[in-house]
């Protein structure tokens, strides 16, 4: 694009020069005519040669893949936002003050996607805000997706390679013991300073798994939902069912209780890569199936998280039944193999749904 920007003024100057060369030739033809006859019609001036621009290059495989990835990540963050903002009382040990936005630069992606990140997402060396948590202090303060992040509390933020990781270490102490922070962003060529109230929320990371396996994982700190699961979840409510369930497992400490935090953490690290090593994902990949009693307790907590976040919960049982029917426990790389107690779970969900509706009718706090 910078090359085209420089060429356009040159093309605009060249056309008038050709026109000046044509005008003397027309006057010369007129002077050769006799005075007793009408001047002949002047020949039509040759049309200006049209400036042909090269057709845009078709998108590369990397650009197509990155655009699809970004679209799914946007949906993931959007659906997760109400769950983490409205449930700090239910995930007390994991509740933290958050800035309320995500930021990336082109180096946030692997080497083969750096050029695609610059072209498709408009990312450069500086961190750019990619998403703002709905209902957060950042959203209320006017932080926008597309803002280039310059500083927080007058601390200039790193740029270039490893900027995302380095910025996290800079920001962590800045949000401790504060109710708000001052940030400076570049917006439409101008510096903008904003006072951003911090948001007390469930401090879980949400990751997109680069696999078509219909599954999800929780390692105690993060929630990963696979591309296959996101495609299976027909609505945002259905996707929220999966996110809330894995959030509940984290809140209740089930990964640690199962001694699966390290194993599942390694799986999440692998599946977030652009090209995960699927040779390690055969069968259950070392994950123990969740005992049905623990699963049912997590389902109960997840239903409260969902209704507090404003999601519809009447279709939770049909969703989990459909998942178990299409991907039964015999499909070892799918969700139900790790959560096999579907009948036990849905019976417990039915009881929780009645409890929630009774509390709603009596205007009682929606607490499990």
What can you see in these coordinates?
The structure is a single chain. This protein is globular. Helix content is 46%, strand content 14%. It starts with a helix and ends in a 7-residue tail after the last helix. Helix 2 packs across helix 3 (114-121). It has 368 residues and is of the alpha+beta class. The longest helix is centred in the first third of the chain and has 30 residues, at 2-31.
Task: From the structure above, extract its key features.
globular, alpha+beta, 368 residues, 11 strands, 4-stranded antiparallel sheet, single chain, 3-stranded mixed sheet, 13 helices
Quick summary:
The chain is of the alpha+beta class and 368 residues long. Helix 2 packs across helix 7. The N terminus is likely disordered.
SSE map:
Elements (H helix, E strand, L loop, with lengths): L1 H30 L29 H25 L9 E4 L2 E4 L9 H8 L6 E5 L4 H5 L6 E5 L2 E2 L6 H12 L5 E8 L2 E8 L1 E4 L2 E5 L6 E3 L3 E5 H6 L3 H16 L2 H4 L3 H11 L20 H17 L7 H11 L8 H4 L3 H20 L7
Parallel strand pairs: 9-11
Antiparallel strand pairs: 1-8, 2-3, 4-5, 4-6, 6-7, 10-11
The helicity comes to 40-55%
For the largest sheet, list the strands in their spatial order.
5-4-6-7
Q: Please, what is the average pLDDT? A: 87
> How many runs of DSSP E, i.e. beta strands?
11
Give Rg in angstroms.
Answer: 29 Å
Distance between the termini: 56 Å
The proportion of strand residues reads 5-15%
Shape: globular
Q: Pick out the low-confidence regions.
A: 1-39
The secondary-structure element order is HHEEHEHEEHEEEEEEHHHHHHHH
| Alpha-beta classification | alpha+beta
Continuous helix count: 13
| Sheet having the most strands | 4 strands, antiparallel
């Amino acid at each position: 694009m910078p090359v085209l920007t420089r060429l356009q003024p040159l093309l605009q100057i060249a056309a008038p020069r050709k026109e000046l060369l044509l005008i003397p030739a027309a006057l010369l033809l007129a002077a050769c005519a006799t005075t007793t006859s009408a001047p002949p019609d002047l020949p039509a001036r040759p049309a200006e040669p049209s400036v042909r621009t090269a057709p845009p290059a078709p998108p590369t495989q990397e650009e197509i893949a990155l655009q699809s990835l970004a679209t799914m990540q946007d949906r993931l963050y959007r659906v997760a936002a109400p769950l983490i903002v409205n449930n700090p009382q239910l995930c007390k040990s994991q509740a933290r003050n958050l800035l309320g936005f995500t930021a990336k630069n082109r180096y946030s992606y692997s080497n083969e996607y750096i050029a695609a990140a610059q072209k498709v997402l408009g990312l450069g060396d500086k961190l750019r805000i990619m998403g703002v948590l709905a209902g957060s202090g950042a959203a209320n303060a006017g932080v926008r997706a597309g803002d280039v992040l310059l500083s927080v509390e007058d601390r200039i933020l790193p740029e270039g390679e490893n900027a995302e990781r380095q910025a996290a270490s800079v920001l962590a102490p800045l949000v401790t013991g504060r109710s708000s922070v001052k940030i400076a962003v570049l917006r439409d060529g101008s510096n903008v300073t904003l006072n951003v109230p911090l948001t007390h929320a469930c401090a879980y990371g949400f990751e997109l798994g680069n696999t078509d396996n219909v599954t999800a994982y929780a390692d105690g700190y993060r929630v990963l939902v696979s591309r296959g699961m996101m495609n299976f979840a027909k609505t945002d409510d259905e996707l929220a069912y999966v996110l809330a369930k894995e959030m509940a497992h984290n809140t209740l400490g089930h990964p640690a209780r199962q001694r699966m935090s390290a194993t599942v953490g390694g799986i999440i690290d692998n599946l977030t890569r652009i090209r995960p090593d699927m040779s390690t994902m055969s069968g259950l990949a070392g994950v123990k199936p969740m005992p049905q009693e623990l699963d049912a307790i997590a389902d109960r907590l997840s239903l409260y998280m969902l209704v507090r976040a404003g999601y519809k919960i009447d279709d939770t049982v049909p969703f989990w039944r459909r998942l178990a029917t299409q991907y039964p426990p015999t499909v070892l790389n799918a969700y139900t193999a790790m959560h096999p107690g579907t009948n036990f779970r849905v019976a417990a969900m039915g009881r929780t749904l009645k409890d929630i509706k009774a509390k709603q009718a009596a205007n009682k706090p929606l607490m499990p």
